[in-house]
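Lecture notes, unit on protein representations.

Consider one protein chain, 386 amino acids long.
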Amino acid sequence: MEFNVKKLASDAGVFFSRAMQFTEEKLGQAEKTELDAHFENLLARADCTKNWTEKILRQTEVLLQPNPSARVEEFLYEKLDRKVPSRVTNGELLAQYMTEAANDFGPGTPYGKTLIKVGETQRRLGAAEREFIHSASINFLTPLRNFLEGDWRTISKERRILQNRRLDLDACKARLKKAKAAEAKAALWSDEVEKAEHELRLTQTEFDRQAEVTRLLLEGISSTHVNHLRCLHEFVESQTNYYAQCYQFMLDLQKQLGGSKGELFSGTFVGNADSTSPAAAPSPPAVAAATLPAVPTIPVVPTIGGVPNTVAEGVLNPNEVKPPTSGTRKARVLYDYEAADSTELALLADEMITVYSLPGMDPDWLIGERGNQKGKVPVTYLELLS
């Protein structure tokens, strides 16, 4: 009990001495031991690393999980050292709704078929997103978090110890200075001077030792940068793979919808040879404005519109195609398109071309003209104007 009381009294005395020294330094009434320039640079670099790592970590968490409530939930599970429950992504939830809607509307209807196709793509996008989030969390967020919760805490602890050692050292210097001043006035050797010098030697040794420990930890920030650089490369690779998957999924979906769109509007562009077949469902207003007047079907003859009858077989010589007397329309190109062969017309986004249809053509294609150039163009790359 007595030992504990003495220890508490000693700790209180040390704390009071440090507080007095710190206050006098702030008021400019006491000298302060300055660290060398290299050490100060290491401290500044460490603080900069810590601050930017925190910001990058927090913003990456927002990127991977925009929902703040979900982030708080994941944080609590992590602190409780429990596994975060699997959560359905927005894409997967949208896929579920689309599939259920298709079943209600009729999976055999054009709308139902399209909902199923889009829903399947959304499911694949959601699964890719889940994989990306998992990979980014392990390869990027976890190392950043480990630095802040591990290495940085150790550095901060040693810096606080070094600060206390410096305050003790400066307090000993102040006491020695006062003892020497008192000795000069008394004109005799004082035991206080010897005691103060002894304390100064001890505190100087402790300060030097702690400064070396802290210096080694601060110099380790360079290896931290190397590690974070490697993690950053892995994050970029994961993100690149994710967006490449998304792009491929959307390309596949666009091809599927291109065929469905051609089936839906084939009667509008080409005409329906079977007059007894039911009429196509009315298109939305935005698409209705983009329809072309059908070119009347020509009886079976060796040529069609002055062109050898090879269009229906998929062979087309653009130089032999003549535009119909009526039924041409203007169209704006939505995306760049590279011609696959000499029968097709290469397109540039946002340019204007003239288009028309010929009997027997694939409903997914039109004839496009730009100046003296002409060739087949895909319908899905165009916005047909009224």
